[in-house]
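Annex B. Sample input.
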Amino acid sequence: MPSLSLDQLHASLSDPLLGSIGFLNEVMGRYPDAISFAPGAPHPSLSSDVDIASYTERFIAHLVHDRGLTETRARRTLFEYGPSRGLINDLVAEALRRDHGMDVHSDSVVITVGAQEAMLLSLRALCAGPQDVLAVVDPCFAGISGAARLLGLPVIGIDESPSGVDLDALRQKCRAARHRGQRIRACYVAPDFSNPGGSRMPLENRRGLLELAEREDFYVLEDNAYGFTAPIAAEIPQLKALDDGQRVVHIGTFAKVCFPGARVGYVVADQQVQAAGGQRLLAHHLAALKSMVTVNTSPLGQAVIGGMLLEHGGSLAELSRRKADLYRRNLTHLAHALDRELGAMHPHIHRNRPEGGFFIRVRIPARADMNLLETSAAKYGVLWTPMSQFHLGEAGDSEMRLSCSYLTPEEIDEGVRRLTRFLKSEVLRPHR
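Annex B, continued. Sample output.
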């Protein structure tokens, strides 16, 4: 039988990042009774009452009454391939205008298979060759660094500060890239409660990032997955809402505010692209790329999401209100439980204090690697995520990420008690 050698396949297949994610899923499968702080998934109770049929019918009614389709044609639309750019673009554009003050036209929106496809398409379009570099905040969401590796794009890390991306460091990296004959083409940021760092970018820093993008000629990939969890009356304008120079490609997902199984995300790309035949929006070119990747996003998935938006007055804020309340409650509960159980345990155990999002980071006086995770799961029945897989280099080896989103308050309390026993026995107690 002929066989393949791994070194003859794409280099991304040997990347430790892919292996670590697979290992984490495998550990979770082997310890189903463990309390897991690992997944950054929505709470299962929030999708228990989703009436898929009702939302689909609501969207069909929209196609008939607002777009002028016949009932037969509207229903057939959900069973066909559909346009690569999407079916619910107008609803998404209106929601972004209503809730975030983004002056975007539906033509600049592409509906994608989750935010992950939006990242892949944006990187493929913007980065033309080996001279183009992606800058990411370090630590960074594994999906964007993984997409870059699949595409063979160089990635450089910019340190994360409590105010988000370190603008001085980014400026220096731009200049260093030019000296090497390269250019930072895009910079990925999640300005509201980044995964896994948890930082939030103040308004002044947001404006500073846009000014730097204009001056250094790069584009900003803005990921807005967790902005809806911001404390009430503490909203800060999205980068795209401040984007007078069309430097921001805005990426969003319905996985957290609706449910992930729909696999619906979106990208706003209103940049004008010059070509021999005239100007076209970057969104048009992203849709052309998409036609060669996933062809189109599931019309049934879009119909459910569209129906959910319509039932909530076309507002993302209304759609996510109940979910945001739950996640804020869980984050506060996890923070208090950690302070109660770990606060005075050891001077070298520290945690960050995010105001929103799904995650809290805990630094311990030991190497928080896969071996330690295995011990935690097998002997103490508690799971977490090693932070090292979110870093480009060797940083993060002594940190774990704890997610609050998937658990009840009672599970959080028990999970923190198990985590405390684990740390006392395996990390803090001298081994003879």
